[in-house]
Amino acid sequence: MNYGQIIYTDVANGIGCRTSLFVSGCTHHCKGCFNEMTWDFNYGELFTKEVEDEIIESLKPAYINGITILGGEPMEVVNQKVLCPFINRIKEELPQKTIWIYSGYTWEELNDESNKRCHSSDTNDILKNIDILVDGEFILDKKDLMLRFRGSSNQRVIDVQETLKTGSVVLSKYNDRDESRKA
């Protein structure tokens, strides 16, 4: 897996101060995507053990709330193969840190075992170890700058752990509009 960028003190892609990993590779190709260069699976740098170790170190300070993984598309099957053990490592070494994933795939698509485009032997492990999933493709016609942590109104900010407990999608408290942006 390649990655396009790592932001070590990001405050835009989740709650608090976070490390954000932008993985490479995406087959959605959403019109109006803010990060088109990461569509190419070969874009950027190789995600190595050294890079993984650097990210783990960046998560250790108390002021870092967690990691956000976006892209590109983290939930492309080839990216899941690399991200699954990485996410497991974060949960094992830093269980107090939150993990957010942004995916163009919906919760329903990710949980459909017949959908080989995005469901793999790693999908369930990834989902059981993350806190928030921002799901759904970006749709330019539904773009809304007043939304928190998402670009278009079809996307959802899902509380993954509560969703797994209840068996139906539970939206996070962060799914609401950002009223502080009003003039």
What labels describe this entry?
single chain; 183 residues; alpha/beta; seven-stranded mixed beta sheet; globular
Question: What's the arrangement of secondary structure elements?
Answer:
Layout: E1 2-10, E2 17-23, E3 45-46, H1 49-59, E4 64-71, H2 77-93, E5 98-103, H3 107-110, H4 123-128, E6 132-135, E7 156-159, H5 160-166
Parallel strand pairs: 2-4, 4-5, 5-6
Antiparallel strand pairs: 1-2, 1-3, 6-7
In short:
The chain is an alpha/beta fold and 183 residues long. It has five helices and seven strands; from the N terminus they run E-E-E-H-E-H-E-H-H-E-E-H. It has a seven-stranded mixed sheet with strand order 3-1-2-4-5-6-7.
Detailed description of the structure:
With 183 residues, this protein is an alpha/beta fold. The protein has five helices and seven strands; from the N terminus they run E-E-E-H-E-H-E-H-H-E-E-H. Strands 3-1-2-4-5-6-7 form a seven-stranded mixed β-sheet. A hairpin with a 6-residue loop joins strand 1 and strand 2 (17-23). It has one domain (2-181).
